[in-house]
Amino acid sequence: MPFSQCRAASGALVILFSVTMAGCGGDAMPMGAGLPPGARAISDDPACTPPRCLEVAVPLPEGVTVTDNRVRLLLPADYGSTDKRYPLLYLLHDAPGDVSSWTRLGDAQAFTENLDVIVIMPDGGGGNPGWYSDWRDGSFQWETYHIDVMIPWLERHLRGLGDGHRAIAGPSMGGHGAMSYSARHPGLFRAAAGFSGAVDFLHLGRVSALYGFLANPIAGTPNGPIWGDPVLNYDIWEDHNPGRHVDALHGMTLLLTSGNGLPGGPHEQLGSPQLYAIEPLLLLMNQSFASTLDAAGIDHATWFYGPGFHDWPYYRDAFAWALPQLMAAITPQ
User: Fold this and answer.
1) What does the mean pLDDT of the chain come to?
2) What percent of the chain has pLDDT over 90?
3) How far apart are CA 321 and CA 323, in angstroms?
4) DSSP string, 292-326
5) What is the pLDDT of residues 267-305, one digit of tens each?
6) Residue 181 · residue 188 · CB < 8 Å
7) Which of 203, 188, 184, 171 is closest to 309 using CA atoms?
8) CA distance 308 to 288
9) Measured CA distances, 248 to 37, 44, 117, 120, 204 (Å)
10) Pick from 181, 186, 158, 185: nearest CA to 170
11) What is the torsional sign of CA 301, 310, 90, 328?
12) pTM of the prediction?
């Protein structure tokens, strides 16, 4: 049975959940067909087109605050015509990205067009980067929202395979989130990838924590409200640093990529020197994280591709490299 759509009074397309609806032609999705309540199509984003790409607002319990509880979903092409269950790929965005980043900038819809996977793309702070953390000052609870609220709620309503069949990936801040969530919640994800990810703020101990903290006005790195002062609250920085918790990553498929910040790559953008300046710091973080994994005897794969800057053209290349490996890890054998 195909997906069906109806144009609402506002002009937006909405996905129907009842068997029929007056004034709408064609067959509608039956109730209970594996879509979250309130899922709707987006009418103003050519990179998120129905019936595969939908958006849904996740209900927030009392005490959980986020700036945006919308989640974008990409469904397999045959999702509406079968009762199959699928592996799940969670894609986290960068700073200061938003819920639309992976479809608008990452070509996620095209990359996954022929794959049997449910892709879940949550918000992580929009213009106010949340660092996939519950903030020290109590302003936001991003980790609680994603791990304890969003994932259980979505997976109750989607036809996902669940444990053993989840992967998580992201660039920059999203790469931090992918490794942090994997390390802090052992067994939740089978595979994780970071694309120029901020995976080890403590590669030089307190020194690198301090320059990460001071870079906030330029790079949106964690500041006082998020993890506190890296001198007075170093324990919080350690708690959220994936490089301090690698023992929890045994048995996972782990993928790391980064450029070196030099010109000469395939996507030159010489008018943006700050993007080149940031990337060498991310390379240091990823090399340090890879060394920590080596020391712990944890298998992983790296692609340190040389010249390149810190932005989506290279994140897309990295995603193309990682995606088959992520799928191999979470697809039933």
Assistant:
1) 89
2) 79
3) 6
4) HHHHTT---EEEEEES--SSHHHHHHHHHHHHHHH
5) 998 888 989 999 999 999 999 999 999 999 999 999 999
6) yes
7) 171
8) 19
9) 34, 41, 25, 23, 22
10) 181
11) negative
12) 0.90
